[in-house]
Amino acid sequence: MAHHPLQVPRSSLLDALSWLEYAFQPAGVAAPDDAAYGHQRHSATVVMATDNLPPKSCESDAVIGEGSRPVAVYTADCLPVLFADTHSRQVAAVHAGLKGTLSGVLNSTIDRLLTLGAQTNTLHVAIGPAIGPCCYELGRNLVDEMQAQPGLPSLSWSETQPKNLRAIRPQAQPQQHGIWFDLPHLARGLLQQRGIPAAQIEVVEMCTYCMAESGSSYRYNTHFASGYQSRFSWIRCRD
Ligand SMILES: [Zn+2]
């Protein structure tokens, strides 16, 4: 049987910050014992870590760190987005699928971090494993609606399915004569619109459908009923 070694996804931006620790854990691995994370609803709601102790104490899709406690999100195909501000030494973990991204969860996280002393020009953001444009088919009407929505940055999508040369299993089969949408690109655009420098935003390119360990993708499960498990991504300040 062919064996495909899996990379452990890392962010070189976050790796360079010695005052923090983070991980994009594989699917199915439990969150750190002391992590705070919300009951996620694809909303723009941001809370502090202590609001989610014990975990899932409240409905929220972004959690801001307090002290050295890890803050986490769980995802399948949605974007796990980790924020670190080098000026105020704050961290945040954000769950941003298409719905949450469009509802403004990245903006509301930035707003809250700024009120706590962060600066947009010192924010660093890593976008972790998520469904890639190689496997993320959307109906054309949805893209038309997004293009009509004021204030969104330019969208990236393709009529033809991009071939992913790094895939370790077959890419998603077309289901609806749709388009292939780049969700990480949309998140990057929104972050840049808010003034975060492009060089301080990193997309870890690992598609949960065709590149990550099995059980990573909600959509793969939809197609094959093979089951899926949450992927925890977390970040914390060191003691
Ligand atoms: Zn893919």
Automatic annotation (TrEMBL):
Pfam families referenced in this protein's UniProt entry, alphabetically: Cu-oxidase_4 (PF02578)
Domain of life: Bacteria
GO molecular function: copper ion binding; S-methyl-5-thioadenosine phosphorylase activity
Keyword vocabulary terms for this entry: Metal-binding, Transferase, Zinc
Catalytic activity: S-methyl-5'-thioadenosine + phosphate = 5-(methylsulfanyl)-alpha-D-ribose 1-phosphate + adenine; adenosine + phosphate = alpha-D-ribose 1-phosphate + adenine; adenosine + H2O + H(+) = inosine + NH4(+); inosine + phosphate = alpha-D-ribose 1-phosphate + hypoxanthine
InterPro entries: Cu_polyphenol_OxRdtase, Cu_polyphenol_OxRdtase_sf, Cytotoxic_necrot_fac-like_cat
Protein family (similarity comment): Belongs to the purine nucleoside phosphorylase YfiH/LACC1 family.
Protein name as it appears in the record: Polyphenol oxidase family protein
Annotated organism of origin: Pantoea phytobeneficialis
